[in-house]
Task: structure prediction
Amino acid sequence: MRAKQLTDLLKKGDKIAVSNITGREASQVTGISQKYCTNIVGGWALGKGGQTLDTPQGPIRVFATFEELLRLTPKENHPNKILIYSPPDAVYGEVKEILKHGAGIVDTLYIITEHVSVEVTAKIYRLCLAARVNVVGCNTLGIINVHDHVRIGAVGGDSPEESFKPGSITIISNSGNMVNTISSYLSSVGMQVSFGISTGKDRLILFSLKHFLMLAEKDEHTKIVVLYVEPGGTYEAEAIDWMSKKKFSKPVIVYVGGAIAEKTNVSLGHAGAVIEGKTSSASGKKTLFDDYFRIPPFTPAKKYRKTADLAEALSRGIRVDILHHIPLAVDLVTQVLRIPKDSSSFKPLTLNPWFSNLRELGKELPAELSLSPGTIPEPYKSQYMMLRKGFVDTMVRQPMRGASRASSNDGAVPRIYGYSLMSLMRERSFIAGLILYWTGSLPRNEFEERLAEMTLTASLTNGPGTISAQGAKLSASAGNRPHSAMIGTLSSIGTVHGGNGAKAVSFLLEIFSETSLTDPYDKSFDPIPLAHKAAAAFKKKKDAAKAIGLEYEKIPCLGHPVFAHEAVNYDPREQVIYQFLKENGKPQVFLDFYHALAEALRENHSTSKVMAVNVDAAIACIWLGLCWRAVIEKEMTTQRAMDIPFAAFALGRAAGGAGEFLDHQDYGTPMDMRIPVHECRSLTRPRE
Amino acid sequence: MAQKITEYTFIKHFAPRYKIPVPGHLSGNSTVSEIKRSLEAWNGKALVKPDILAGKRGKAGAVSTIRSAQEAVKELNRISGIEINGNLPRGAYLVEMIPAQWEIFTAITYNSANRGPSLTISLDGGIDIENVSDDKKITIPIDIFEGLDAYQASDALQKLNCPQNLISPFSRVLIAFWDMFISTGMISAEINPWRITPDGKPYACDFKGTLDEANYKCEIPGITYPEYPANISDFEESMSEWDKISHQGQAHVSELGGNKILPLLFGGGASTIITEILDAGGGSPIFLSDFGGNPPYERMYGTAKRCLDHHLTHAELLLILGGKANNTFIDITFQAIADALSEYCRENGPIHIPVVIGRGGPKLVKGFLIMTQVLDQLQIPYVVFGPDSPVTMVAEYAAQLVNAAGKLRGLNNAG
Result:
């Protein structure tokens, strides 16, 4: 063991590198850790060199190997702690690479990976011992040093501050989950945490309990140690032997789980919970601790008298039989040994149902079991209120044959998302009702209504030559009724005619999902850097594709076959919307971004002209603006946000198709859309 | 993640490969004339043993000595069908009876004290090592890289006052034993006893071992490990197969024989504690489960669906409980469980048993909303607790609730 004190395992200023950082779990945990303590300096993943892992605190560089990370990172940023998230078969190789290249740099390894073979685990132990590198794991969840506000691994989940506040208890647990859980319990008696440690519980635990206790003995913040212990291994026997001989000075509160394995012969969840002998079973460990404490297990109902004998026994500690007795036992120890509380707040642990609906059963149950909903504590209450407002939270898949969230009719009042249709008829415009039906919310103001209406008007027509108008005219020419002509129009629009708006929304979501934009009309938001970044990315893709003769994916909704002849091109329909926004002093971020992008593409020579931002882009931008708040608050699916602009175009154009039908019916001749035979060309020769 | 190895697999596959001397042996389906020929070569005496995944108490009581081919056939048939500590054998086999002057115990296992392999030897072989006093056994650590060498083995035997003439031959077989252990990815291996003939020849006369399935070495070309009529239920077998499919998220279960609470539990530690509380509180949990480890949706859906399909029809309460997760996304796991529950009700009709939920962790509120909406839609009674309610108290409550609901049902039925 190289560490001399707990802070050697993790302290403020330590620099961490993560193996396999682009993996599903590693990337999630890295993002949260950066938010909590920004101590990750880089990572590596085979074949992923050159990428970055974006976090709100800035991008983290991803290297191909650990050696490359060291070579390309300034010395002052070299990592001294390594978090290993590699797959089981890769762990041994990673450790060897780290020890080879990180000699004199790396002092501690944390191996999160589960299912590493026992043989490899034993080899890792030997290699690290020889290299004088601490190794924690395998299958650890990591460590949190609460006073220094730093963690390595996933202890504390996605909100470490919620469970861990600085205090005087060090938790050492065979279960990662129990570190969190016990910490939450302790706050009920005004006690908080110094270090939260997950030892891992594989067959071999490489950093043993004895060594953790040796370090806890020297930790100035640690006044009490809480242990969560499972069957398997002789670590506790070894630790108790050491504590007895060295007169360990800090009281230990211990819970030993897993006795059920002896009674029922079941196998427990953790791989290391395998009995090696009588001192490694749960009952064996309980006896060892009881013998060390020399006091029977904690009994909450008992009235402990504060005698010298009790103080002497509790100075070693006490065992609890039930997990939620830990805080009560800690409370007793603090009172008897006069250890100051970390906080003045005291809230006994109780059952607090957040949601309850026991239906008929609740009426028959005894009162103490028929629980009514209690109070949801913060921050959960705010999260609940926010989620309840939307409707994504109700998106549980279910049979929808007779069910709808969008509409209802109780026999008297037809409604749209709860709003009476008659009230809407009397008080609101058609477009307001449409926005409600499509987005789940009424528009916030008339300005938004006006914008949405403009998109429908813009969609009505682009002249009789458009494919969609031709659809209606063909139908009229054949003698169909208006609804068939409108279907003819709808059948003649698709992903390249009208449907490009969905692609534009997808493109915009990708660009803007990495920003903190909340208001699409935020004047302080500058979309130009984003446009340049997107233009550069496009040019790179285009050049690469062209170099090998491949087609490249175009940016959706830029350019128009009609409006394409000037050095700087505009779609006049889009311009109406664009100017309307400007005139009203509400430039829209998405549409501004599109214009900036058209210019940036010309500037970096991706295009020879400034391409027109076409009307599909305007429709996409306006409707995405209407949906933006719901999308970022996860109240609306991105699929819906992508479908709405296409629906807007289709609605406008179908109405336009009806106009073409009525015109054609009045003035056209039967079958006039037929192409005369002499105008048709055959591309095959007669064969007989 | 462990595969148990029996003596029969050992003598058939491992012993010849690593040159470990074993008695002559015959499979249970040998012909009478083969048995006769072998008995002649074995001085007319042999043992019939069951091929079984022996527990701690081994094959004791199910090994018989035979002296003729007829007796052998009779005993092979009898022992093939005998149940030992709840386990059934795969068959039975014959082994030569080795006359012994000495019986020696040896085991190689990974030892938590030195975080590496170690060899334990006792000259009092043939009995359970825990019943041998400390002064009559010795444990020596083995360097994982350098392995066991003959000098170490001989030194250990000297310390046990092993007869001098045995030290050299026995040290050699110990090296072979180590070679087998390390080359096949074993976690533990026990040869007990080695029977040493009066002329000093050692024979490995019983074996049990465990392979580490996380170690690639245990997949040996040419060896297919036999399947044993395992003492596990269809449910455990189905879940075991499902567990092996992916490393993303655990799907560990172990049946407890209970008949009231169907527990979907999360976290290795929490699952153990909760099960103990349920058991102590009369909640009669049907099985112990650990489904933590941040399972993706498909993994959790498959896990939940299997649990519900096997046990929900006879369960009296569904418990979904875990501590405050560090990295398991609650919305994903709960969406998967909710979908599995909806699917179950679609396939099997409505259920009315109460559901008790307790959880903490990332995306908790969304997970709770998803779950409560499904329970409302399915008209199932429920109570949901957040991380401010201790898991152990929630478990106590679930045990009380299932018993109170059971009493009410009894009263209603009687009425």
